[in-house]
Design goal:
Layout: H1 28-66, H2 72-81, H3 87-102, H4 105-115, H5 117-148, H6 157-185, H7 192-217, E1 219-221, E2 227-229, H8 231-252, H9 258-272, H10 279-292, H11 298-307, H12 315-335, H13 338-367, H14 380-405, H15 433-452, H16 463-489, H17 494-502, H18 504-528, H19 548-570
Antiparallel strand pairs: 1-2
Helix pairs in contact: 1-6, 1-7, 1-8, 2-13, 3-6, 3-13, 3-18, 4-5, 4-6, 4-17, 5-6, 5-8, 6-7, 7-14, 7-16, 9-12, 10-11, 13-16, 13-18, 13-19, 14-16, 15-16, 15-19
Length: 582
């Protein structure tokens, strides 16, 4: 395939590899040489396979470690009972952790694409491991201070907030590094969606493993006689584990044959005609044309050699230049796509309520049973496990359905809408990934609608239905989002692209955390005002008034988000009209 040319006829990108010999021109010695090269090529292939397998294993381990942030509800209520934090403070810590996990993700993704996932893994060891170590020390300090001076105000909140900000950033580094590794190493093949979702599923499964292990192995008897997790030991063990995982991942997480991936993406853009937008390659083309036209200026030729690196003259410099140009060009194209913004807002409207529910699951359970009813409320650890397990199963099932039922382009690079040279994988029964996303959102809203209706109030045994529906919908939407991004906008700039979309739940977590806290506190004050004119901020709330308005609003938000992705697909200049395979 010939490279596109400008008006002067000069190629915009030269072929860097030497022209292969035809079959008729090959000598016996070249045949023997090819045979002798087979063994090194086989060794190279085996080495690449081994490196990909090692990176895949550590991406799963890294995602399991990053998933420790999903069990906040396992100990969040103990901040209220042991450290005397208010509901606003508890949600403030959770929201700060979620904001720290999502807000810097575009920058983290940018670093991952350009410097590799190994650097992010090391950053996770420092930030997440150090954050949990600091949180452990602060928790012990706060409990000891309040036991010695019951009337003394809390002194640990500000630093505890800082610790969880570090934990959020560290978890984001480890999580994004893990899924980016799988996206780029396994961007081809029939089951690339399932391989991409593997660390995402591990992230969800982590909540079940950690919550059950902590509640069974690290429990202690609380002052009220109930058994609950020993928060100090729990934080300390997490700190050690994340430091070890992060340091090991800094060596194991790597993109194999990344230069080939970049070369293929550049060739794809050459074919689509988008290469001419690069000023770098245009300047190279102009200088080439000047030489062809017969320029005898030695200084100009020398300048061209310096500014036009080849594999023989500054190959590494040229590879970096080409990679930088490609990633920057794809980022601009991603941001300029209006459908991306509809997709990102849809993700925000759906995932925001899910983040808030995860963070407040423990306090929601506490509102379901009146103190006049002498029945033991369900364990928060049990429902964290239910939600994590169902979420993990949903991620795997939806990713498998995506691979088996949805149309898949052969190329792993950005879809330009131009018919590809390779055929699209079509199946007799096809279900778009957008349809799977829409159905997942409706399942999610079933859980919030059931809670908003009051069907679980005074029937806490039904709460598993809420946990199951929300877990299934939340997990499925979270797994389909990166798959859709790789299918439409390619894998070479995945970290940056996914980071831009994934930043939206930070705002959603903050907004819904504030809404839930305000509704909870208002319900607590209204129910307690008739008994006592002085109502403290940390008073507990019981009844529908504590949560129902919040979950009605969440349900509407999820429905709006579900229809927004339909618009991105079928609306004006949507994916379907542009010939995008999804």
């Amino acid at each position: 395939m010939a490279a596109p040319t400008d008006t002067s006829g000069a190629p915009l990108l030269r072929t860097l590899s030497p022209t292969p010999l035809s079959a008729s021109s090959r000598s016996p010695s070249s045949s023997r040489s090819s045979t002798s090269n087979a063994t090194p090529n086989l060794k190279r292939h085996r080495r690449a396979t081994a490196l990909r397998s090692l990176a895949f294993v550590f991406s799963i381990i890294g995602a399991l470690g990053a998933g420790s942030v999903t069990v906040y509800s396992l100990y969040g209520h103990l901040f209220q009972s042991r450290l005397h934090y208010t509901q606003f403070q508890i949600n403030g810590i959770a929201s700060a952790m979620n904001i720290a996990m999502y807000l810097p993700v575009p920058l983290i993704g940018y670093m991952c694409d350009r410097f590799g996932p190994g650097l992010l893994s090391f950053m996770a060891a420092v930030l997440a491991g150090g954050g949990y170590a600091l949180a452990a020390a602060l928790y012990r300090k706060g409990v000891q201070e309040l036991e010695a001076h019951a009337d003394r105000g809390d002194t640990t909140f500000a630093l505890m907030l800082l610790a969880f900000v570090a934990i959020g950033v560290g978890a984001a580094c480890l999580y994004l590094g893990s899924i980016t590794t799988c996206a780029k190493n396994f961007g081809k093949g029939k089951y690339r969606g399932l391989l991409l979702v593997a660390p995402i599923a591990a992230f969800g499964l982590s909540g079940m493993i950690i919550s059950q292990g902590a509640s069974r192995l690290l429990y202690e008897v609380q002052p009220d006689g109930t058994d609950d997790v020993n928060v100090f030991h729990f934080f300390l063990i997490l700190a050690i584990l994340l430091i070890v995982i992060g340091i090991a991942g800094s060596f194991a997480l790597r993109i194999v044959d990344e230069e080939d991936l970049i070369d293929e993406a550049v060739e794809e853009l050459e074919r689509s005609g988008l290469l001419e937008s690069s000023e770098v390659f245009r300047r190279r083309a102009d200088r080439t044309y000047g030489t062809i036209a017969g320029s005898t200026n030695i200084g100009e030729d020398e300048g061209a050699d310096v500014l036009e690196p080849t594999r023989e003259n500054g190959g590494d410099a040229y590879a970096k230049l080409k990679k930088s140009w490609l990633l920057n060009a794809e980022t601009r194209r991603f941001l300029a796509d209006p459908t991306m913004w509809f997709f990102a807002i849809s993700f925000w409207l759906i995932i925001g309520p899910g983040e808030s529910f995860i963070n407040n699951l423990g306090t929601v359970i506490g509102t379901l049973t009146s103190p006049k009813v002498y029945s033991k409320p369900p364990s928060a650890a049990t429902h964290v496990s239910i939600m994590a397990t169902v979420s993990t199963v949903a991620r795997i099932v939806v990713a498998s359905l995506s691979d088996l039922l949805s149309p898949t382009p052969e190329s792993q690079h950005i879809q330009t809408g131009i018919p590809p040279p390779l055929p699209v994988l079509r199946r007799k029964l096809e279900v778009s990934r957008v349809v799977l996303y829409f159905i997942s959102a409706l399942v999610f809203s079933g859980g919030t609608l059931m809670l908003a209706s009051g069907a679980v109030q005074e029937h806490a045994s039904r709460f598993w239905i809420v946990s199951g529906l929300i877990g299934a919908g939340y997990g499925a939407v979270f797994s389909l989002t990166p798959i859709i991004i790789t299918m439409i906008w390619g894998v070479e700039n995945f970290g940056t692209n996914f980071g831009i979309v994934a930043v939206t739940p930070a705002l959603g977590s903050l907004v819904w955390g504030i809404v839930y806290s305000a509704v909870y506190q208002a319900g607590a004050r209204n129910s307690a005002s008739s008994k006592d004119d002085q109502v403290p901020d940390d008073v507990f709330c019981y009844g529908k008034q504590c949560y129902a308005p919040t979950f009605w609003a969440m349900t509407v938000s999820i429905w709006i988000g579900a229809f927004m992705i339909i618009w991105a697909w079928k609306g004006r200049n949507g994916w379907s009209l542009r010939g995008i395979v999804i």
